[in-house]
Structures are given as structure tokens and as C-alpha cells.
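Supplementary Data S3. Sequence and C-alpha cells for construct A.
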Amino acid sequence: MKVLHYLNPFFSQLGGEEKTNMAPMRIEGAVGPGRLFNSLLKEGQIVATVVCGDNYYAENMDKAREEVLTLIRKESPDIFIAGPAFNAGRYGIACGDLSHAVMRELGIPAVTGLYMENPAVDLYRRELYIVSTGRSAAGMRKDAVKMAAVTDKLLRGEEVGLPEEEGLIPMGKRVNIFCKEKAAARAVSMLIAKLKGEEIKSETPIPVYDIITPAPPVKDLSSATIALLTTGGIVPEGNPDHLPAATAKFYKKYSIEKLSRLESGQFESVHAGYDPVYANINPNRVAPLDILRIKEQKGEIKKLYPYLVTTTGNSTSVADATRMGKEIAKELLAAGVDAAIMTST
């Protein structure tokens, strides 16, 4: 059976950020993690690899999708593997979009691998077999084993098992299965276990969402103190406090009290989730201090909080982001800040 593999330039060992605008290209056989897949697959082998830069795909999605599909059609594969992309957002979006397109346009199965918090998960989980991976390539072999097992099942035409059995991210679909015990007996057993304080597992799990009550709107901006926050990784040149480029666990505050704008050469972006070239040329593109100073001078806002609050949102866990958000909010409230502008990438 013929397997077609999709990778970005980094995992295909063609380069890093300097290749992120690379147009789609075909490579004969398996490269990078594809070699690992070929050692694990029992029912097929990777015959070719298609590579595309993450920025190229994200910024030209319709065009890039068709270019990649054209390369895939020439191979007539039996199945498509994308990634794994772990927690890389742009890469994950490309893997999810292409897998969905391959299934829809070519009528063949597709498998990808993503970390649960990758933004592509919520976009494609209902349509795709997405193997739940670790946050980074540190768990590549373990994740590849799960992806290869699902791929082999699909190539054999076997039914894929439940998410917890296969290591898949649930699609949110309910399926009927046969059990030896009747529903009433199972329900009573669960109730008894719950009364004993034992761990139980619901057969129909209900999603739990955080309920966030929006803050009331600021009635009069001309009398409000506004804070500027960013997850775009804008820091003083040289990154003196070593803010991580990804998976940040802390934030920093830098004085902007005497600044009218963020100057190139004095501030830079250390964010590893986007091409920082344009942010480094003009850091105000990510943290718009220049515009806020104009509004302050015109009296449209009373004053600007004298610090830029910054971190990197790239691959930062929900738990760490929630903790930092609470800490920042506490500081801003104590300083009398009425509202905050949070910019991203």
C-alpha cells in the first residue's frame, strides 16, 4: 500500500524559519519522521513526501491546498499521513486542512497527530482521525507508534476503535456498543462507586467549559487608564530576562512611561510561532504603543499604564496562561487600570 506523507521544512530537515515561505515540493520516499513511520508500518510504505512552508500555507491556503493536492494526486496513494505537528499552530492548521481536503477530494483516509491544545484540534476534530500527541517532538517515537497503528488499521479496512483505545482525540460522536450488564446495573454500580468516593468514568461524558462573565464596558474612555498587554513576545533588544520563545511560564513588565513608540533596535520579538521580521522592523505592529500615545495626547483615553506587559503565547499551556492572566489582572486592578488591550500575533 502506498502512503503519502506531509511535513513542513523543519521536520523534513530542509531548514527552519528561513524556509517558512517555501512553496510546496515533492521529495522521493520518506524523510525525517517518515523514516520512523516506514519502520513501524506493517501494511504500507511512504512512497513520497510533500513539503510546504507553514507561512506559505497559512497565507495562501486555497492556492497551497490545491498545489499540494496536485502533487498528491500524481502519487495515487492509498492513505495520507500529515505530521505529527504537536503544538505547532500553523503546522497543525496545514495538517488538519490537508487531511480534510484529501479525504474530501481524493476519497482516501487520512491520519494526523496533534497536541490537544493545538488550535487545529477544535477546527478538525469532528472530521479527522487525530492522534493525541505530546506537546513537542520529544515524544515522537511514542506518538508515531500510535499513528502507525491507526494507519495500518485503515489500510486493512478494519474499524477504528474507541478514542481511548487508539490514542485518538475524541470526535464528539456517540456510538452504541454492547455490554454484558444492563444499563440499570451499570448505573447502580457507578452510583455505589461514587458514594464510596471511588473514581468513576461516565459512559456519556459531558463537556465542561469555563464560563467567563465579560467585564462591563468602559463608559468613558477619556477618563480611563488603559494597559497594553501582548502575547506576541515583544521584549527589549537582547531579551534581557530570557523570555522563552515558546511554552512560557512567566510574563514580564517593561517601562514605557517615557516612550512614544517602540523603536526597532530597542525592542524585538522573541516569539517562535511566527516570522518576526516585520515585528522587529516595527514592534508597534504587535504592541501598538504609538497609536495609544496618539489617543492619549488627543484625550481619547485618560492615560496609559506605564508598563508593557508581555509574554509568548506560542505553545503556552492553558493552565499557565490562566495562572498568568489572574496574576496580571490582580496587578492591574491594584494599579487602578480600567481596561486592557491584549494583542496577539
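Construct B, processed identically:
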Amino acid sequence: MSQENIEKIKVNIPLVADLVAKGKKPEYLFWVGSAGSYDDRAKKISKAFAKILAYANVDFAILGSEETDSGEPAKRAGSEFIFQMQALQNIEMFNSYGITKIVTCDPHDFSVFKNEYADLGGKYEVWHHTQFLEKLIQENTIKIDDKVFSDKKITFHDPCYLGRGNDEYDAPRFIIGQLNSDFKELNRNKERSFCCGAGGAQMFKEAESGDREVFVERTDEILEMMPDVVCTACPFCMVMLTDGVKYKDMKDKIQILDIAEIVANSLGL
């Protein structure tokens, strides 16, 4: 994440290197991720979550220009060598800074840090942001205003790498349950959920042959519910579902929001 983007958030976001230079280290590394740093829509998710962390007085910091990529897309695309090279570089940096806890808004990075870095010597306590937000709510560190979305019909799209990949279905639903909204599950949900179409490095390649895009099929399932708001918990899902409602000319009727944005709005941030 660039310094320009950090300044636009208008909260104090320290850099890990600056803290370490002062003899300190953050409790949590907020791993922004490539999508959260460079995709214009995903930047809003990063900003919303950073505002929540600051509001909750969480001791966190980011790597800033030292952050590169987790290597997850390379691994999914079949380049184990590039993945290991990237992962080992990150592990060396994390360990040099004494990082033990990582929180991220990207389920792909969450999954690779949690499940695959350990094989290369990188063992950390890893949180997806929905899990961390659930923790903050349960600890009464933040309190959701249940009136903000109370008049909205809401549904939730399970990210593959959060749900089926890591068996996390409860955290996002716990948060949505605080909203006092009209929540309806999609027909294919939880372990039966359908992909947005961008996992497995699909975000970075041309579509394969076929008569229908994955994101179009998922969007059609969403439109059957006719929600006011679709909750996501992954920057890739955000891109694909936003494209889907635009493709169906429904962008003015259906709002796509990340869980972090929902919580930030409910806190008045």
C-alpha cells in the first residue's frame, strides 16, 4: 500500500519498520495484500478495515512498500518455484520483525499463510478479517448499530478459500446477525456454495472455453433473491460480483459490500 493511500484513510497507520526502529513491534501485522493495495475497489475494503482497527485501538501496523505478494496466485497457477521463492522472502521478513500474528482481508492470503507457510518454516497465528471482527464484537470492543441496515434485505456469498478451504462459515454470519436486517441465504451456500470465478489464479488469465462465465451464473443465483445488499468477504469475490451486477445492468439496484465496509458503516466510520 502506497503512502498516498495510507494518508487518504485519515487514521494513524504505523509501519512495522518504524515501530521496530523505536524498539517496538505491533501485536498484529495487517497484511493488506496485492488486491487490497492496487485494485481501486478493494482499496476501500482495506481502508474500512484499517479504520475499524484504529477505532478499536488494536495494536497493528502494515509493511507498506516492504509488502510484496504472498505467492498464492503463483502456486495456484502451478509455479511452485515462484511461490516458494516469494514465501521464503516473506517469512524471512516476518521473522526479522518478530511478527507472530497476521490479519488479512484476503481469504487466499489467509489460507496460504495459515496452511502452507508452515511447511517452509513460517508458523503464525493467522486471522481472516471476518474472524477478527467477530472477536472484536464478542469482546464488546466494538458495538454494531443495528439500525443502519435494518431495512435492507441482505445475502452473503461464501468465498471458496474461507468456506470450503478453511471451514469458516460462522464468523461472517455472526456479524451479519448483528445487523437486524432481513438476511436470506443463497440457494447454494456454505459447503455447497458456488465460486465467484476468480480463484485458482483465474483472476489473471483469459476465460476458458464454455458457454457461460462462472461469475454470470453466480450473479443469476443472487438475482433470484433480489437482495438490496450482497455481502462479500474477499476482494476477488468483490470484483467478480460487482462485474456481475454491472453485466446484468443491476448496479443501481444491488449494492456489493465487504463485511468490513458493513461494519464500518454500522460504526459510523
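Residues 3-136 form a domain with the Rossmann fold fold (CATH 3.40.50). The first helix runs from residue 3 to 9.
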